[in-house]
Every structure is written in C-alpha cells, then in structure tokens.
C-alpha cells in the first residue's frame, strides 16, 4: 500500500468484509479510502490499529473517520484507536463524521473509558444528516457524499469520488431507493449481503439478500458489485450468494475479502 496517493487517484482497500460475527478470513466490515488529500477510514473495528500498520500506514495518517451507524461491530474499535493515539503521543484532532445517533453512542463510549482529558486527542464531531443526501467533504479532488439508508437504526451510505473513479458503500441496509440513487454510475458498489434470498427472513429487518444487492446494482447502473458484510460463513452458501447476485445483476460480482484493494489511477485503468 503506498503511503501517499497521486493526484486524481483513488485507492480503496477492504479492511474487513464480514458481519458482526467475523470469521478467520473476514473481520467486521470496514474500509480505507485513499486520495491525494489523505486517508479516510470507514467504520472502526477492534483491530483498526493493527490493520493500518499492516497497510504500511500509521494512526497519524488518518485525516478522518466515518462511522455509518452505532452498532457495535462498526464502532467498538473507537476507544482503542483514541487510546493508542495517545500512547503514541498523537494529540492532533480526530475528525469524526457520523449520524447524530452514532455521535451520541460515541459520547457514551468516551465517557465510559474516560477519554476526554488533555492526554487524549480532541474528537471533532461532524453530524451526517440522514433525512436527505449531503456533501461531507470536497477538497483536493476528493468528494464524499452521504445519504440515509434503511437499517434497524439510523445509518448512512457513502460515495467517494475523484476524477479517476466513484465508489459507493451501502453499509448495512435493506434495499433502499436513496442508496440506489447514491450509487448511480459508480465504478464499484460495495453492498450489504446478509445471505441468499431463500434465507431472507432471518436478516431482512436490516440487511439485503444477494439477489436484492444485484437488483440495486442493476438499477444503479454500476460497473462492478462487491458483496460486503457477508453473513454467510460456509463456502457453499457464499458461492450461492455470488451466483444469485450475478443472475440479478449480469455484471461482475465479487465476494469481498479482507485485503482486497483497487487502485484507480487518474485517467487510467483500475489496478486490482
């Protein structure tokens, strides 16, 4: 992983591809986004510091952290990140973006672990509205936009764009028109997949089936679908999900894996 990214490039790495019940090969869902402006972490699994180091980055490399919702598999690494930064002597701000409900959960985490004194980095919070699409950031060729999703709590989907590419991450969601609109024309859609459609009743309150993810990809006109937050644990069911999504979408479909990476050079072709 390059520590710096050339102007116009977009780098996407999957830090975790699994659900709230991780496996030996798939940690809880999280991403790392790189552009010439710097690095953005999406979600905060318990092993976030280790994962950054494995990518050749440091905690000081992060420009911002985005938490899409308050559920434990997306936020439980946050107190460790703050504590590890303090141990390293990093007192710079952590710029945290999250929905209001998630910011409230973060406040409680900070209070429980007593992370608010001068020894720790300052947490600068920015609320992500969920009622309508919003632009979170636009600088040095990187644009980040968000829209509310359809989960069991307030959540957001995200879109990252440079001149090289557009990537959309649905986070945890049922099929949702707002997420489909956000993903329109994206080079890659990283979409929630709780399992095959035949098992939908087990997860439909807050997640999508593989077929539904494929339908979203079709409606949004994306180039590639990557199934994320994979709830299935055995290879046969995972393969079923991939084939089901391919049937619905018709385009290329990947099962997300930890360490999967795409590099979109400015004006060039994607390197995987």
Describe this structure in words.
The chain is α/β, with parallel strands linked by helices. It has a single domain, classed as 4-Layer Sandwich (Metallo-beta-lactamase, Chain A), CATH 3.60.15. Helices cover 24% and strands 27% of the residues. It contains 7 helices and 14 strands. It has helices at residues 48-54, 72-75, 78-87, 100-112, 177-182, 210-220, 235-249, and strands at residues 10-16, 30-35, 38-42, 62-66, 94-98, 123-127, 134-139, 142-148, 156-161, 166-169, 188-192, 224-228, 253-255, 261-264. A 7-stranded mixed sheet has the order 6-5-4-3-2-1-14. A 7-stranded mixed sheet has the order 7-8-9-10-11-12-13. Strand 3 (38-42), helix 1 (48-54) and strand 4 form a beta-alpha-beta unit. Helix 6 runs parallel beside helix 7 (235-249). The protein is globular and about 55 Å long. The chain starts with 9 loop residues before the first strand and ends in an 8-residue tail after the last strand. The mean pLDDT is 92.
List keywords for this structure.
27% strand; alpha/beta; seven-stranded mixed beta sheet; 24% helix; 272 residues; Metallo-beta-lactamase, Chain A; 7 helices
